[in-house]
Amino acid sequence: MQKTPFSGRVDTAAVHELALNPDGFVGRTDAIILSTLAHEMAHVWQQTHGKPPRRGYHDRQWAGKMRELGLQPTSTGEPGGKETGQSVSHFIIPGGRYAKAYAKLAAQGFALHWQSIPAPEQARRKKSSKTKFTCPECGLNTWANPTRA
User: Fold this and answer.
1) Rounded distance, CA 100 to CA 22, Å?
2) Which of 10, 56, 65, 68 has the fewest beta carbons under 10 Å from its own?
3) Predicted confidence (pLDDT) per residue in 48-104, tens digit
4) What distance in Å separates the CA atoms of residue 8 and residue 13, rounded to the nearest whole number?
């Protein structure tokens, strides 16, 4: 997720942009994807209406807004995790405001139709820059780049 403030060219107005990376959609439900958008919207709310913390930090004011939205902040992704810190995720509170709002949206037929193409298993593994060569006489191994002379 990227948050980008834009400033006005003519006046002092500012606008925020939230962009979702479709790589993060793979293997996630629409409810989870949109909850990530709400998570980032809580940051924008704090930036414009609250007291912004240092960059990347999730503080008590942000955590309070998240709970108000129906999202439970957690450092572990599970119940019981810390609500504040540098690396904080969330989960959807069952029966909370977000869960109810998403249920209404889904009942109206809303669905996200796009995601990035999942990388094939071979592409996920780090490509080796070296190839293993074994001497047929003694069995000694060595590694070298086969494309270099």
Assistant:
1) 25
2) 10
3) 899 988 887 899 999 999 999 999 999 998 999 999 999 999 999 999 999 999 999
4) 5
Taking CA atoms, 72 is separated from 69, 79, 83, 98, 142, in Å, by 9, 8, 8, 10, 53
Residues facing 4 on adjacent strands: 17
Name, in order, each residue with C-beta under 8 angstroms of 3's C-beta and a sequence gap of 6 or more. 16, 17, 18, 40, 43, 44, 47
- HSE (side-chain half, CA atoms, 13 Å) at 11: 3
| pLDDT at 2 (0 to 100) | 47
Q: Which pLDDT value is given to residue 118?
A: 74
